Each structure stands twice: as C-alpha cells, then as structure tokens.
Amino acid sequence: QLEQAEALYHETLAGRRRALGDLHPGTLTTIGHVAGLYYQQGRWEESLSLIRETWEGYLQVLGPTHRQTEIVFDNLIATMKKAGQSQQQVQAIKMQMAKAKRDMSTQSGRSVYS
Fold this sequence. Notes:
Layout: H1 2-20, H2 25-40, H3 44-61, H4 67-82, H5 87-105
C-alpha cells in the first residue's frame, strides 16, 4: 500500500508543479505529504530534503509566523534529528527561522497569499 501511495503522491506532485507551480501552497502541501511518507518509512535523508523544500516554500509564500510554516518547521527539526544532523545544523535552522521572524516584524508582514 505504501508503494501505491508513493506513486499517487508523485503523480499528484508532478501535476501540481505543472499546473500551480513549485511555490503554490497546494504543491507545497503535497511535497510535505511525500516527505511524511518517507519519514514513516525511515527514509530520513529523502524526507529531510523534501521537508526542507516545503518549509522554505512556506517561509517564502506564507511567512514565518503562519501556522502551517510553524508546523512544517517543527517537522523539519524532528526530521533533521532523525537524519542524524548535528546540533549545530539544527541550531542554524532555528536561527534562520528566528531571523525570518525578526525580518518580517520590520516589514509589512504580508505574505504572497494574504
């Protein structure tokens, strides 16, 4: 069943990338679903790559304080730890998120989809 789910996710993702673009929230959600599937299978590095793409996309289009961005950020941290990333690497991502929040507070605070 996981193989079928993976095939369907990849098919859906390809269609969304074509129709909506890489940074559309619907596309990013599907990328996150594929990352979650890989996480469940213990495919940490593949999951990490996709969850990072999802977080970076949400950060760009929804902003750092949007609930979905924060949820994916928490998933990114958990995946980094499972993938054996160092504490320094985890800290660097946390600092990147904190900087994005600081930068947003000095700007209008609006996202692409607000």
